[in-house]
Amino acid sequence: xxxxxxxxxxxxxxxxxxxxxxxxxxxxxxxxxxxxxxxxxxxxxxxxxxxxxxxxxxxxxxxxxxxxxxxxxxxxxxxxxxxxxxxxxxxxxxxxxxxxxxxxxxxxxxxxxxxxxxxxxxxxxxxxxxxxxxxxxxxxxxxxxxxxxxxxxxxxxxxxxxxxxxxxxxxxxxxxxxxxxxxxxxxxxxxxxxxxxxxxxxxxxxxxxxxxxxxxxxxxxxxxxxxxxxxxxxxxxxxxxxxxxxxxxxxxxxxxxxxxxxxxxxxxxxxxxxxxxxxxxxxxxxxxxxxxxxxxxxxxxxxxxxxxxxxxxxxxxxxxxxxxxxxxxxxxxxxxxxxxxxxxxxxxxxxxxxxxxxx
Amino acid sequence: xxxxxxxxxxxxxxxxxxxxxxxxxxxxxxxxxxxxxxxxxxxxxxxxxxxxxxxxxxxxxxxxxxxxxxxxxxxxxxxxxxxxxxxxxxxxxxxxxxxxxxxxxxxxxxxxxxxxxxxxxxxxxxxxxxxxxxxxxxxxxxxxxxxxxxxxxxxxxxxxxxxxxxxxxxxxxxxxxxxxxxxxxxxxxxxxxxxxxxxxxxxxxxxxxxxxxxxxxxxxxxxxxxxxxxxxxxxxxxxxxxxxxxxxxxxxxxxxxxxxxxxxxxxxxxxxxxxxxxxxxxxxxxxxxxxxxxxxxxxxxxxxxxxxxxxxxxxxxxxxxxxxxxxxxxxxxxxxxxxxxxxxxxxxxxxxxxxxxxxxxxxxxxxxxxxxxxx
Lengths: 359, 375
Fold this sequence. Notes:
The structure holds two protein chains of two kinds. By secondary structure, chain A is an alpha/beta fold. Chain A folds into two domains: 13-211, Rossmann fold; 227-311, formyl-coa transferase, domain 3. Chain A is 37% helix and 14% strand. Chain A has 14 helices and twelve strands. Chain A has helices at 24-39, 68-73, 87-99, 112-116, 141-147, 168-189, 201-208, 210-219, 251-258, 271-276, 278-290, 294-303, 314-317, 321-326; strands at residues 13-17, 43-48, 78-81, 102-106, 121-126, 197-200, 234-237, 240-243, 309-310, 329-332, 335-338, 343-344. Chain A has a six-stranded parallel sheet, with helices on both faces. Chain A has a three-stranded antiparallel sheet with strand order 7-8-9. In chain A, a hairpin with a 2-residue loop joins strand 10 (329-332) and strand 11 (335-338). The longest helix of chain A is centred in the middle third of the chain and has 22 residues, at 168-189. Chain A is elongated, with a radius of gyration of 24 Å. Chain A starts with 12 loop residues before the first strand and ends in a 15-residue tail after the last strand. Chain B has two domains: 10-215 and 305-362, 3-Layer(aba) Sandwich (Rossmann fold), CATH 3.40.50; 242-301, no CATH class. Chain B is built from 16 helices and twelve strands. In chain B, strands 3-2-1-4-5-6 form a six-stranded parallel sheet, sandwiched between helices. In chain B, strands 7-8-9 form a three-stranded antiparallel sheet. A two-stranded antiparallel sheet of chain B has the order 10-11. In chain B, helix 1 packs across helix 8 (174-197) and helix 8 (174-197) packs across helix 9 (207-213). Chain B is globular. The two termini of chain B are 40 Å apart. Chains A and B meet through helix 2, helix 5, helix 6, strand 6 and helix 7 of A and helix 2, helix 3, helix 7, helix 8 and strand 6 of B. Strand 6 of chain A pairs antiparallel with strand 12 (323-324) of chain B, so a sheet runs across the interface.
């Protein structure tokens, strides 16, 4: 058995190339993939442009002015500055690539050809699939969410489409790039030629949003944001809000939990019936929540096997009993941040602070 | 194809719905041999949720099941039956990975948990994907899709300006989608370690933690400043001058992100059709895009890239979220009918003969139809 002070990826070296003038949404994805590998023990060399990765200045900020985004996405890495516009910087990068196992970089980038020619397996992150001739198209994380169909899914049908909170496009792509990186390392470790990996945010989002395509293929019309006509609603309670969610098989338990005889009406027996009578359904459900706290609701509902979701803000999560019990939030100086969401034989992977910009 | 990243890796797949079944599907995408275990008494719920009609064989016609389980072989073995459990333990000795997303304790009670399987196969990598993780006071809590939008923090940051929180809803169930993108990479990492050391491991994934992990910077910022406002802000974003969706003359919505604010943007969009508005904005160097729906995604094959594919029956299935050596997925087999490969796999891996297979079928340990009255 491997001793607990060894980390699973510690025999690997990965170069994360941060070229100039790359859209921030791509940089977030590259950085997340590198961070996961670094927290798992890989030596991750973050090559920053003179002046540093622009993410060092991106919001949200910590009280001393550092970027919380940068601190979170660059844990456990090392950093060096190279001017990749100059010959000496490119020569130094080429040398690093000769001894590394894999290289993460964004496309389009001035160094793409250089990285692809190196011995390290290239893992590239782009906005669009190669089929789309869109190398120079202006792009944002938000417009990619629109293209991938995710904006269409959230909000009221007669009001504007909404994005999900956080950087979901970049993070989903970053998780994907990490898995592609792991596959490449596994091939190398087995003595095979590793496949090059290409991740585009547009493809990742469509893959995530597959039910839109599946639904459109099956019925000819796309699923979309349902807002107040959805069977699942957000209802207010004593100290916040709760998401009413249950599977088809959990409806009888949900009905029993609420305990209102009007719910026995046969029109509520099927999903179609509940959707047809959704205003009336919620007129019956909503009062049950009004006088109860989120914790009371969760405890009572879970006891009956009903998966209602109390809504917690990121700051409330810091005190969540479950997260505290599992040690999910790692201490980093005076602050805390989520660590990798996996326990390996009961072990967590504590992140080390992000690197300062070398002088 | 003998040198794909996971060639030679065999996966015993108890994964259900998206979180579990899709993690195994991603392992299959990389060359693993995935054998999916269901039972006549308990089908993958996707077979039921997505059934198009009540006619015989409905359990083999769900689009959602077909999307997620391509390139797997399918076995139906009763987990609650002693003989079913014995057969699965025998299969586990021929496998490298287990993927499961049952409620905690289900496999332990069947004698098929990590502690049991480790004894007969020490190199097994056991990936347990659950709502809250395998430990802690909420380990037995159940969730369904958007429960975790709510409890992870994502819903609190999603919504119209100053209004109530929003969830991704049952047609997205966002937290279920992202867990496999992460879990697959960790399973691969553990397989590498098992190859190197001969020792497997227990991987405990909490889906709620995966969803909260995507808000890492917000949680970090909140730990430094508990009073930090984290209310709903519509489509606005810190550090971005102007960002929103706007309705165009043709009734379609487009998304725009601008580095400098332009108060005339709303009127501009209202006066143009969406295609013309997007083209004009892009030409001026401004990020703009239509808010596509599922029908648009099916039509735009260039944009779809490798994310969709067709099986040999012509059915639309899930493709890849990335491409390897420039390529997308090869569909070698459509998603299995219930129990389609039970006999073939038990013959191939365990050397069962006709008589042994007949005994299992006669005892309802194996089956090709639901046998719990769900029809």
